[in-house]
Amino acid sequence: MKMTRLKMMLIGLGVIVLSNALALMGVAHNRSAESEALLELTERELALPYRYISKEENTGLALKLKWRLSYQIGYRNSAPDSWLTNEKLRALGFDIPVSISSEERKDYQNILPRAVFLLLEYDGARYQHALDYLEKRLADEQALAMASPDNEEFVKRVARAQQAFNRERTESSRLFVIDAGLDAEALRQQYADRSRYMVLKGKVGVSTRREGDQYLFSGYVSDVLIDNINVPLAFRSTFESLDSASYGRNATHKPRYFVTLKVGKRLEPWITEVGSL
Which of 195, 218, 223, 249 is the least crowded, having the fewest Cβ atoms under 10 Å away? Predict the structure, then answer.
């Protein structure tokens, strides 16, 4: 006997209700007990959507979590991250040798990223390293320019170094991925400060780079699984007058809001407070 249209509609409605119920149960479970982390971030770490201009109060809004790796500092954007060593990659489950020949490379070109737990540090040692590096770079460029005051290229290099240092000091994200593991509890025991470190789910992948006649392996963070954080309607008023295109147009621009972010039992973040700066 053919299923009637009414039965099909009821089954479809039941599936929707069940899916929503399971989602709400997951949210409740995530937010039960002690939070995994509680951090106060700013616009530097949680950015408005590209070209965002608030027009309707009831439209959805999600902030983008801006995370970095330690080599993404100023001028350096290609070197592998120092903590993603071959030893670390093997501990994360990648079966890789120390190096391979060009003939062997094809056997390792399609290694899929692996699900891991990522450790993110906020406004800590890795960010201070970024500041120190760019400040030294600026001092070196200024010394060269002073030694050759008529060299226009050196003057331009000072300007670029100054701009990079200013951007790092006032605009760039202070949230760095500094470690990864297969055991979230082990990461938390190693990094106990819940106001500076948070553990999130993500993925790490491997690539190869040539050195001489050999290829070496490099690790990279391919994804933080939840990096768009929904803003509850109650906090939308803070963003009503803001335009994402107006932030960061000059090197002295300051963040315009702060966000208190909690990470729950299932390592899923949510917003508990928002305010203007």
Answer: 249
> Which pair of tokens denotes residue 20?
């929503």
CB 149 within 8 A of CB 233: no
The whole-model pTM stands at 0.84
- Tokens 């290609």 correspond to what residue? 78
Q: How far apart are CA 210 and CA 33, in angstroms?
A: 48
- Based on DSSP, count helices (H) and strands (E) in the chain, helices before strands: 5, 11
DSSP conformation class of 243: B
pLDDT for residue 193 is more than 60: yes
Number of residues that make up the chain: 277
- What integer is the mean pLDDT of 52-79? 72
Which residues have C-beta within 8 Å of that of residue 1, sequence separation ≥ 6?
Answer: none
Strands 46-47, 62-65: pairing is: antiparallel
Separation between Cα atoms, residue 47 and residue 246, nearest integer Å: 12
Please choose, from the candidates 249, 241, 244, the residue with its C-alpha nearest in 3D space to the C-alpha of residue 276.
241
CB proximity list for 235: less than 8 A, separation 6 or greater: 271, 273, 274
* 208 vs 211: CA distance, rounded Å: 10
Cα separation of 86 and 95, whole Å? 10
What is the token pair recorded at 89?
């990659």
Which tokens is 238 given? 């803070």
Partners of 230 in beta bridges: 62
Quick one: DSSP state of residue 254?
Answer: -
